[in-house]
Amino acid sequence: MTEKKRNLERLTGVKGMNDILPRDVSLWFFFEKTVTSILHSYGYQNIRTPILEYTSLFRRGIGEVTDIVEKEMYSFIDSLNGKKLTMRPENTAAIVRAAIEHNLLYDGPKRLWYIGPMFRHERPQRGRYRQFHQVGVEALGFKGPDIDAEIILMCQRLWGDLNLTGIRLELNSLGHKQERAAHRDQLIAYLERYIELLDDDSKHRLYTNPLRVLDTKNPALQDIAANAPKLIDFLGNESLAHFEGIQSLLSENNITFTINPRLVRGLDYYNMTVFEWVTDKLGAQGTVGGGGRYDPLINQLGGKPALACGWALGVERILELIREDQIVVPSEEGCDVYIVHQGAAARSFAFVVAEQLRDAGLDVILHCSSDDVLVSFKSQMKLADASGAAYAVILGDDELQRDEVSIKSLRSDRTSGDNIQQRVPGKRLSEFLTNLIVTRSGKY
Ligand code: AMP
């Protein structure tokens, strides 16, 4: 391609990786504020780990025979030192890595939460992106089942606070390793009887990760999966007691759930309790989030054995549900005041006024234009209107001479008379505007 042609080529974002534009930000803020307030109300602490990790972390943590590790990771070689890096496809392995590296469990268990972008090379479609966001919790060093119930309760509270309806909880237990091993033998023997009917994915998993065959979305295999030996029938007393413990805690807290014996989750590190939140409102991508216990992981990644559980929710899918349910969210767009001005003296004064109003707690946009271009008041008022500000503050020669400012409401009902321009002495402006804004919007 010639240099010229390359320059003319239209630049776009990477497929499956979305821009979040200002018009969508009210929704994101509403979600983030709601979820963080709930996480803090349960005593969870925020943790932020890097987007890049060594590839070996995910290979060891998530499991070699998983969709993520086999085909979905964005991995590359660091050209400076030849090390293999991966953009995090999920965050549990990284948080466990950080907890071990910084010895976070030295003084007892930890309740942690995170939010941020994850990266998976999947086929983009509604609700499935290559860069997407997860909010998640990791409760490290707890045996359960009380903590398992606690993290589920947090999600239930989140659905309530977001006013979302129609999200169901599905629950299962994967038991201990030995129980899974006993089940595995019988499952393989059962699946071998149908080997001719299995698709390539299932054949591939038959001896490496047969539990995942039960997770198949292939309609032709649903009957085979439904009639396969059930892991729950292989659970011993301790696993059953744990599973029954969490069920009674959920019931006591009025949480309804269904037991789905085929729920296995896509990542290898889970054991005992696993769960998913699902909805019918999002088409094919109906899983809003999920999680469970991952007791062996801390030890598997080199830490002292410690039990743990957590969940991750897909932020884009939750936002889609908020849109789908037509929930009204508070607007973050627009500010309180847009200041228009004309002339050098008025501009200097406008800076002073803008800072005074910000000192008083108001959000202020100051009209900015280059020195040599005189923008008419009419054009500035159009910009003020388009900015979404509640009031325009007008500073012209006349106002300056009288030590006054003019105020015009930009958002009121035009017939109420509230939008008539009013003048107030310069030194009373902050107080006057603050009162106006408090009485009109209940801002503070
Ligand atoms: P997982 O880590 O696969 O258990 O995913 C947890 C949640 O993240 C899922 O239930 C989805 O809500 C969300 N999620 C996973 N992958 C994607 C993706 N490619 N695009 C959007 N959301 C996703």
Describe the structure.
The model has no long low-confidence stretch (mean pLDDT 91). The chain has helices at residues 3-8, 25-41, 55-62, 67-72, 92-101, 146-161, 177-192, 200-206, 222-226, 237-252, 297-300, 315-324, 344-359, 377-387, 397-402, 429-441; strands at residues 45-46, 52-54, 74-77, 84-87, 110-119, 131-140, 168-173, 258-259, 271-278, 287-293, 308-314, 337-341, 364-366, 391-395, 404-409, 422-425. Helix 2 packs antiparallel against helix 6 and helix 6 packs parallel to helix 10. By secondary structure, it is α+β, with helices and mostly antiparallel strands. The longest helix is centred in the N-terminal third of the chain and has 17 residues, at 25-41. It is built from 16 helices and 16 strands. Helix content is 38%, strand content 19%. Strand 3 (74-77) and strand 4 form a beta hairpin. The protein has two domains: 22-175 and 235-324, Bira Bifunctional Protein, Domain 2 (BirA Bifunctional Protein, domain 2); 337-441, Anticodon-binding domain (Rossmann fold, 3-Layer(aba) Sandwich). An eight-stranded mixed β-sheet has the order 1-5-6-11-10-9-7-8, sandwiched between helices. Strands 13-12-14-15-16 form a five-stranded mixed β-sheet, sandwiched between helices. Strands 2-4-3 form a three-stranded antiparallel β-sheet. Bound molecules: adenosine monophosphate. Adenosine monophosphate (AMP) binds next to strand 6, strand 10, strand 11 and helix 12. Adenosine monophosphate is lined by residues 90, 120, 122, 127-129, 132, 134, 266, 287-290, 312, 314, 316-317.
